[in-house]
Please model this.
Amino acid sequence: MSISLGSGQRLVEAAENAHLEHEYNSDLEYEYFNAVLINEKDENGNYVELGKEFILEPNEHFNNLPVNISLSDVQIPTNKYNKDPAIVNGVSWSEALNKIFVDNFERDPSLLWQYFGSANGFFRQYPGIKWEPDENGVIAFDCRNRKWYIQAATSPKDVIILVDVSGSMKGLRMTIAKQTVSSILDTLGDDDFFNIIAYNEELHYVEPCINDTLVQADRNNKEVSYST
Model:
């Protein structure tokens, strides 16, 4: 997403205010534009539930994809229930972001996609677009697994990983230890810093090039560590 600081701040403030003003209702019924179901009809020619008419037109600014620049729509992960109360309440209050999305785009027509990712898993995207599941009827996308979401939802971390390389750590034990280190590194993002120290009778840094300091957990530094 290409978005200016001012546009982003307007979205943050609108989301915070809408959430604060919303009163949670476990019985809330709320019809919204589901990005998978929009424009879908049943065998009788009627729009399916959550699949109302949603006008889509090709737009050159968005790679000629059919979009709706007046509205956002909502994608729900396949493993989440469309009408889960937490989802419905979140979708309801986040509807307030629609006018901010549109206003941001009118102020700055160079903006591309704008979106909001929820801890409950729903993903509100502007401009609205239809999502197509794969041949198994599944959409694997979950905004909570995206790098931008993880970085925004977690605080920067400084991590030192200690690895036992003594004589008892041969064979399968060492293989498991290396895999554990790789798994830990996979959880780190560009805002995090790390180093790996091996120990037996003495301590030594696994990679001399990043000796005696913490380094940014970017792709290059992690790849160096994976290969050692």
About this structure: Residues 5-21 form the longest helix (17 residues). The helical segments are 5-21, 85-94, 97-107, 147-153, 172-186, 219-227. The chain has a mean pLDDT of 88. The CA atoms of residues 77 and 141 lie 6 Å apart.
